[in-house]
Amino acid sequence: MRNQLIFFAFISAYSAVSFVLFNLIYRTSKVVIDEEFHLRQGEHYCHGRFDVWDNKITTFPGLYLVSASFLGPFQSCSIYHLRMISLIASIANVYLIYIIRKVVLANRNPAYLLLESMSLATLPPLYFFSHLYYTDVLSVTMVLTMVYFSLKGMHNWGGIAAFMAILMRQTNVVWVGMVLGNQVIKTAIDLCQPGGKGSSRKGRHYGFADLWQSIKTMLKKPKIMIDLLRHVLPNYFGYIINIVGFVIFLFTNGSIVIGDKTAHVAKLHVPQIFYFSLFFAAFSSSHVLSTLKRIARIMRKKWPMTALCVCLFAAAIHLNTIVHPYMLADNRHYTFYIWNRFFGRWWFARYLPIPIYYGVLVLVVLMLLPSSNNHEQTVGFSLLWVAATLASVALQQLIEVRYFILPFLLLRLIQTNVRTSANLLTLEVLGNLAINALTVYAFVKKEFYWKNYQDAQRIIW
């Protein structure tokens, strides 16, 4: 009861402070960058004009349909109320983060669970967009809802949440694929155990050896494949129909993007993985600091692998760095300043963080190893998280921190291998709060003007 009261106090404080900042940001600026398109489209849908579509918008209309459903009946279609959709979704995210982590860390100290939930709920890029009318926050809500239902074995509800997640952003299909694939792999390994699906094994630790053994078993006994289909189709039909429907859309549309397809052309961009590692390190300081010595020991002990990876990383940076014209031209994003004042300023600057990239990716690997203490962190999750992250991040030409939010959250929520102390988590939370305060301050105080815009422009993530 005491821990529930503490969590209720936190979510109440989160809501109250966020509401104050929401009003401050609203008074400061009524339209922020791409909100120009989202707000206009949201207003059309809110007033029932479903036949109007802005070709500049490249995502599915999930955000606008939700807005129309909740605001349309009351004709509350103002900028203020449209933005409020994101704020309400962010409060829902706080609860979802807490209950997902509670499922994964069933036996963990409640104080630790609360601190980690606070850290993830205040993730700076996600938190800032909670005050604007963008797709990101509601997209996270739907993906987290799907993950929670999957963890609880409520797969019919998970299928509905999967549909809503894809409706928010097309790229969320990779996370639907991760959830489905993980369940399929676990079922396949179950069926290949002595005694079949009904057998039980203490710990249910499904690692890479289990997967390899299951593949060999299925090749020897093809009948198991039929049994697998008989288990998978009825139990995970909700996820399957979403994947199949999306493949049909992809085939008929010719692209994952709707609207202006030239604005988002998929292209291999390996250094995005390195930028994600910086993002991960910046907002997982508690885990970085608690494993620093271990990472250094691994890098030193396995120095041939370290040397090889450093060379490969340098080659990828040299051959595959893409500098998107939007990033160079738009000084309303922090990435503009980071690139122009560091990465793009000197030819050698983009190579300097390579040791950090490698060290953080070692940490990610440690987190991803299948865990004997976590029934959800199996080989399926490990492999498919990597595949989904590569698909959602490494095919983007533009460096955009919002692309990193979901892979970051899902790894932090599911992993149990790397643990840290309550003191370091407290520092991480305080760091997030400080960054959030600074970004809001910069947004409110720093303004400049563009020739084609009458209103002042401001800096966001």
UniProtKB/TrEMBL annotation:
Keywords: Endoplasmic reticulum, Glycosyltransferase, Membrane, Transferase, Transmembrane, Transmembrane helix. It is an enzyme of class 2 (transferase). This is Dol-P-Glc:Glc(2)Man(9)GlcNAc(2)-PP-Dol alpha-1,2-glucosyltransferase. Pathway: Protein modification; protein glycosylation. InterPro entries: Alg10. It comes from the Eukaryota. It catalyses: an alpha-D-Glc-(1->3)-alpha-D-Glc-(1->3)-alpha-D-Man-(1->2)-alpha-D-Man-(1->2)-alpha-D-Man-(1->3)-[alpha-D-Man-(1->2)-alpha-D-Man-(1->3)-[alpha-D-Man-(1->2)-alpha-D-Man-(1->6)]-alpha-D-Man-(1->6)]-beta-D-Man-(1->4)-beta-D-GlcNAc-(1->4)-alpha-D-GlcNAc-diphospho-di-trans,poly-cis-dolichol + a di-trans,poly-cis-dolichyl beta-D-glucosyl phosphate = a alpha-D-Glc-(1->2)-alpha-D-Glc-(1->3)-alpha-D-Glc-(1->3)-alpha-D-Man-(1->2)-alpha-D-Man-(1->2)-alpha-D-Man-(1->3)-[alpha-D-Man-(1->2)-alpha-D-Man-(1->3)-[alpha-D-Man-(1->2)-alpha-D-Man-(1->6)]-alpha-D-Man-(1->6)]-beta-D-Man-(1->4)-beta-D-GlcNAc-(1->4)-alpha-D-GlcNAc-diphospho-di-trans,poly-cis-dolichol + a di-trans,poly-cis-dolichyl phosphate + H(+). Dol-P-Glc:Glc(2)Man(9)GlcNAc(2)-PP-Dol alpha-1,2-glucosyltransferase that operates in the biosynthetic pathway of dolichol-linked oligosaccharides, the glycan precursors employed in protein asparagine (N)-glycosylation. The assembly of dolichol-linked oligosaccharides begins on the cytosolic side of the endoplasmic reticulum membrane and finishes in its lumen. The sequential addition of sugars to dolichol pyrophosphate produces dolichol-linked oligosaccharides containing fourteen sugars, including two GlcNAcs, nine mannoses and three glucoses. PANTHER family: ALPHA-1,2-GLUCOSYLTRANSFERASE ALG10 (PTHR12989), DOL-P-GLC:GLC(2)MAN(9)GLCNAC(2)-PP-DOL ALPHA-1,2-GLUCOSYLTRANSFERASE-RELATED (PTHR12989:SF10). It is a multi-pass membrane protein. It comes from Aedes albopictus (Asian tiger mosquito). Belongs to the ALG10 glucosyltransferase family. Its EC number is 2.4.1.256. It is found in: Endoplasmic reticulum membrane.
